[in-house]
Write a structure and sequence with these properties.
Layout (H helix, E strand, L loop, with lengths): L5 H12 L1 H34 L4 H51 L8 H45 L1 H47 L1 H8 L3 H57 L4 H43 L19 E9 L9 E9 L3 E5 L6 H8 L7 E6 L2 E2 L5 H5 L2 E4 L10 H6 L8 H10 L3 H5 L22 H14 L4 E5 L7 H13 L4 E5 L3 H4 L4 E6 L2 E6 L1 H7 L2 H14 L1
Parallel strand pairs: 3-8, 3-9, 6-7, 7-8
Antiparallel strand pairs: 1-2, 1-4, 4-5, 9-10
Helix pairs in contact: 1-2, 1-4, 1-8, 2-3, 2-4, 2-8, 3-4, 4-5, 4-8, 5-7, 5-8, 7-8, 12-14
Length: 591
Amino acid sequence: MKKPNNTLFMLKFAVKYVPSFCFWTILEGVVWGCIHSFTSVVFVKTLFDKIEHNSPFSEILIFVSLVAIFLIFASIFYQWYWKFIEPKARQELHKRMQEKLYKKAVALDLACYDNPKFYNDFVWAINEADERTIAICEHIGKIINRLISSIVIVSILFTVDLWIVAAVCVSVGITVVLNILRTKIQFNRDNEIKPFQRKAEYIGRVHYLVDYAKEIRMGHAEDILVRDFDLSVKNIISTTKRYGLRMFLISFVRSFSTSMLFDVVILVLLVYKMMIEKSISLGDFAATIGAMWKLFWQINNLMDFFAKFKEHNLYAEKFRVFLNYKPTVCNAENCTDCNFSINTLELKNVSFSYPETDKKIINNLSMTIKSGEKIALVGYNGAGKSTLVKLLLRLYDASAGDILINGQKIQNFTLESYRNKFGTVFQDFQIYAADIAENVLSDEYKDTDKNRVLSALAYSKFDDKLSSLPNGIHTTLTKEFDENGTNLSGGEAQKIAIARIFAKPCEIVILDEPSSALDPISEYELNKTLMTAFDKTVIIISHRLSTTRMADMIYMLEEGQIIEQGSHDELMCLNGKYAEMFKKQSEKYNL
């Protein structure tokens, strides 16, 4: 089966998104191909022939002036292309391709983030795809440029001597073979270096991201980071050295073989023809010397660009694989919108293992959650609580068993409509560099949303802090892009995240450690609101059992299975694992 041309695949994006740029790139190649061949060969030959034949100075001056005028207009076009056309097209292509990539990223399976190789290629695609596409367009222009120039120069050299053309062909053949070898070696080297570069870049991020600023100053993590950075750089150097010898040998053979041909063989041949045979004129001699070196540069450069396309094709494979990735968690055929109220959410014999592992994180688990019910998932670390939440949200699909709403499999409904039924606060929630209103809505703010945002912030007990901010709900969070922005404390940021569930018109609320950064009073008020004054179904995960005691039903998980279930009072009477955990926590407050 023929391997697809990945370079052509990427070029289609340029043709689709910036067609005018493709036209101007080709035109620029044609114009400068003509200029290169004209100035290096035709102009020199004509000028020397006029001098040798004693043409009038005025005739020579007119000829030179016409060439100068032509070059001025060509230079204007060149500057207009590179200072106006190219930057504008680069930004437009960047915008369009990144938007496509962002949409694709959102559709990826969450499991993709657990695959280091796929994640490396994913990061590459996001960071470099549009730059690589621009480079492909520009290199096509350069190839046209060099081809036109080379064809014109070779045509002129044919009129001088065939042996010169033969010497050039030998040099080109050597250059082509060696460039192909060099590209493969370079690609393999870059692939080996990439993981070490990512580690070094990660250590760089740790030193400039505010998230790590306090931690790194209060411990000795710096020693570990410097050690890992040093090791990463040593690995990069070692890999570079290992491939460097082969790169050196290839470059040396190429340079030596071509310079011998051009510096010695062709030059001696030209001198012989002019001085002994007297078969070429001074203009031929001067033009051939200029053409020879121009052609040598043009063809070597042309081969470099052809080699670049080999490189483009290899790297574009990563982009194509990423873009063609088919998520496994996706809309099934004939699925419909989940446009009805959820009366029951049921897990029936559900099991789950993460990709590339046989260990069951959820093991044959069954439960039924009724509309409006407040339930709590408790258990020690690794019990499977957060994984269960990911299955309920269909961030992963169960390995076995079914999750049902109103008796129907959740795969029967579109992902978007199903997930819209849920409001979620994750343990590792994130705050965006946007204003408070947009953070609460996780969407674009409209004037009609004002009361919804204010009400949600009041429910999450952020209103006191809000009253102290001069710009209210339009206060920018973080100072990353706005020096007048506000950095929130951990508890304040968590209240913003919690406000999202109050602002979203959803039916089921899932909270994973929702009060981990809250003070006891805020935690109590939040729990009271969620458990008694909130008419939605609530699923809460918390290590603080004071949070879960108000739930209608508590499920105690261990190794992915429900080992106890019931209300707080029922589980305390059972005097099992839950009671043991609760008593241990209570002791800390009774000391």
